[in-house]
Amino acid sequence: MLSFFRRIINSKAGVIVTFIVLGIIALAFAAGDVTGLRTGGGGLTGNTVVKVGGQSVTTADLESRMQSELEGVRQQQPTITMPSFLAQGGLEGVLDRLVNTLALEEFGHKQGMVISKRAVDGQIASIPGLRGPNGQFDPAIYQQLLSQRRLTDAQVRTDIARDLMSQQLILPTQGATQLPQQVALQYASILLEKREGQIGFIPAAAMATGAAPTDAEIQAAYRRNIARYTVPERRVVRYARVDADTVKSRSTPSDQEIAQAYAQQRPRFAATEKRDVTQVVVLDQAGANALAAKVKAGTPLADAARAAGLEPLTQTGLTKDAYTSASGAAAATSVFGAVKGAVVGPVRGTLGWIVARVDNVVQVPGKTLEQAKPEIVAELTKQKLQQALGAAHDALDDALAKNATFDEAVADQKLAAQQTPALLANGTDPDSPATPANPALAPIVAAAFQMQDGDPAQLVPVGQDGSFAVVALSRVVGASPRPLAQVRDAVVADIRADKARAAARAIAADVLAKVNRGTPLGQALAGTGRTLPPSQPITASRGQLASNPRGAQPGLVLLFSMVQGTAKLLEAPNRAGWLVVKLDRITPGDAKGNTQLIQGTRQELGRIVGREYVDEFARAVRKEVGVKTDTGALARVRSALTGAGQGAGN
Questions:
Q1: Of all helices (H) and strands (E), which one includes residue 253?
Q2: Which of 317, 439, 617, 618 is the S-S candidate for 17 at Cβ 3.0 to 4.6 Å?
Q3: What is the rounded distance in angstroms from the CA atom of residue 553 to the CA atom of residue 638?
Q4: DSSP H/E element including 207
Q5: DSSP 3-state of 21
Q6: Predicted confidence band at 19 (pLDDT cuts at 50, 70, 90)?
Q7: 457 near 470, Cβ under 8 Å?
Q8: What is the number of H-type helices and E-type strands within the chain?
Q9: Which residues is 55 bridged to in the sheet?
Q10: Alpha helices, DSSP H, located in 111-152
Q11: Who wins on pLDDT, 308 or 458?
Q12: What is the distance of C-alpha 320 from the center of its chain?
């Protein structure tokens, strides 16, 4: 929220410092996503990206961290590539976290802080992914993960100790929640500030696009905007489903099993009697006697109970066994021995003295084997289905654990293997755009986009009934542009749209210049010689924007970053044209006396003010220990990651 306020009052927003807390490290390591940071002293060299006090982050360190970060991000965005991760600021974020952690460690050591071996041992032992079947830390699993990730115990311990140090330094500051009343008043007043203005729209659709583009223009536009016509990475997936149909022969109960189940549950299908009973429970016998007397004299049980400050309870469809469990054997014998309409009691129950009325008596006939058969078959089928699916899952899991291939595992279980076309991460086939994604394939495709070439087949749940699929990655089709011949019509449409937007922008810029020279917005729009929508008034308070910043109209957002009496240009949503926004009036807010707003603002800011303090503390620590960055080395890392990502399909 503080960052939001900084944006809306045109202040420079600080970069929020994010730290890798131990809970995240533990989960990441359990998933095999921890890399050691090898640091050493010395000055900046050709391989050193940044030096933090006496420690250095090398190009290899940073590249390794970036690859690990990318794998982590892919858990949420399976199709993200290294170039797009870099474009989103991934490199800067990773480096910033490394520098902060190293700076805090360096600062902590200077203050005499020490992280004990026992503390690190405890953190490693508490990682869920390192627990064995008995729920305890398993050194064998730990060593296996170290081997898989090509790590050493020392590297992992260094990372954990470093982050424990960071935690001890920042948690007291991060826990700050108090904010002075006067500070909250200022922010609350900002929320009440109101702005009024006008907005004009110059739609691209109203512009002429001129003559049809030439072949040379089409080819140039295709090359210039090749990313528009590039198909993202796709994957060909092999899979075999194991569901109810697959194990149908193993889940159909035999006549013998049905008869056996009937015999075992004979009381369930025997004739029985069910009763509807209204009762009142009284704690003392004297009160129960008085209540029973009134009811037997003709007062309705509910009225008599409420007059005594009690509430009757009506229960329907009771069997004698169920009533015995709830109220005791003596009460059940009395109630089930009475005729319909009779008043029973007082009789001693499990919670007190019971006065009851038998409202209804229903005789439920028993069921023969043939009559009970459909019910028994349904239950046995469901039970045997779960058993069959579980057995198939265990058999396949064992086979894959013993390095069986997809073909071997599928053939052994006599499953029908299938293969998808080259699909995008959302399950669609770009070669068949009219065909929607198959929802049944969603978990299979999602799993395939988490796999790498050469990974063994996996078992993936595909249904709530225990159904699953054996999934293997057949082939990765790297991102590639479609041939111009296939997208020629789209390129032509894009050229025309670009020309229309350029023409609309030129007119919008002319309107903007006139408005800033004093021409009313409506007059400037009318003077364009085009048929344009009339200008519209806009007004809002900062509080309205703060309550729904994502849903606020772009023009309103821009209104709060302007000087009164000026106009600004803004591209319309969906590149539909251009907006000219004029700010006419600013009405300052004053929250004095608005106790509810002030307290609400104070509480909201109190939730995150600790992060602001951490931000400033980290900046001070970095300044104290000294941070030197080699921009040339950083640029080389970016270049290497981009090249590696493109070449490897990352």
A1: none
A2: 618
A3: 36
A4: none
A5: coil
A6: very low
A7: yes
A8: 26, 17
A9: 52
A10: 117-125, 139-148
A11: 458
A12: 50
